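Memo to structure team: turn this sequence into structure tokens by end of day. - J.P.
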Amino acid sequence: MIGALGAVTAALIGFFKPDPTPTSGPQPPPTAEPSSTRSRSDESSSDSTTSGDPTASKRPSTSAKERWRGPVTLPLSLNVPSQEGIELDTAKPVRAGVDDDLRGDYQTSPKIVVLSGHAAEIPGDADGLTRSACEKRLTSSVPKGPVWIDALRGNGMGGTYCFNTTEGRVAAFSIVSADPMPLPQSITLKVVLWG
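Reply from structure team:
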């Protein structure tokens, strides 16, 4: 018992012992797993404001972990794309006029604008999708500009799409509803964001 207590004490002293060589810049926190088994994608899935790396938010995460799920409402402006949309690369979706991921548009019919330029229709509903299913649908081609997706299907709203956010994350949305016609003010989506 005393020997085991001594080993634990020695390990703790070694753990808290200061490093005699000074370094510059932020250091990664100690982990229980060896650094060779920890991938960079595990680190990039954290919020960029806490990672210390100013470019971390621009790297796509390869994590299949769900980051956020819920409804979002996009404002619609008559005859022009809305001046603000929804930014999804934050801790929770927020309305933004710059660097947003999705906007509404009502020029001739309600549309969703995917600003990254990467979107692909997929069968089913956003609730039942996985990140890997969306990745298989999305191409890696260089976008030529935003993509406009028509929200109308026959006499109603509908459709499910995988897309990339402007910071490269994989996400999906299902079109749920819009305000009553003929001049809807907003459109509601069900969104899932991974990693």
